[in-house]
Amino acid sequence: MLQGREEELKNNILSLDLLPLAEREIEVGVFSKVSYALLIFAVAILLSMLSIVPATVSFTGAILVYVFSGILPVRDLYKNIDWPVIVLLGAMIPLSNALQSTGSTTLIADQVVSMTQGLPTWSIIALIMVITMCLSDIINNAATALIMAPISVGIAISMGVNMDPFLMSVAVGASCAFLTPIGHQCNALILGPGGYRFGDYWRMGLPLEIIIVAAGTPLILHFWPL
Length: 226
Hints:
Elements: H1 6-15, H2 31-49, H3 55-68, H4 74-79, H5 83-101, H6 104-115, H7 121-136, H8 141-159, H9 164-174, H10 185-189, H11 191-194, H12 198-223
Keywords: Membrane, Repeat, Transmembrane, Transmembrane helix, Transport
InterPro entries: Cit_transptr-like_dom, DASS-Related_Transporters
Transmembrane segments: 36-69, 81-99, 119-135, 142-161, 167-192, 204-224
């Protein structure tokens, strides 16, 4: 982020060998409001972590406090909501529920277990992570997690093992969308200014995803054993 006179910014960007991104409105917050907002957010996280109240209640309460205390104007509340993501998740949640209620997740899980019969458990966890990464490269990562989470739970139940490492492999895989510019907003943000092409992403992203699978699988099994 750069701040300065408009006529000097272009020269400074060129001298620093930086690539300018799209201009956006950024307001410098008042320190007292920023500290108050951080305190409210920390309290909401603490209440959720300690299971005092559900996460939905604690964070909704934090937003209401922001609005009524004047930290967040109501017009900014609506303006800053990413509505396409909300609509996508609203559509994917019923799909995830339908997969479970129709028995599709159990069917898919049983097929995966039968196809990987005889393979070590760590390889199945790695496979789930890879599949989740591939899905996350073409659809929203939260939507990917909604689809893959019940399937991974079904696989764990079919194998009779702890489901935690399977769910963590989904969480890690859904967060690693490096192969396409549409996998994450940050990928798309640098596409134009950087002069990148679609194929440039997998050249760097593929080795990175391989490293994550190779390092993440044993770490998941270490912290969340079967």
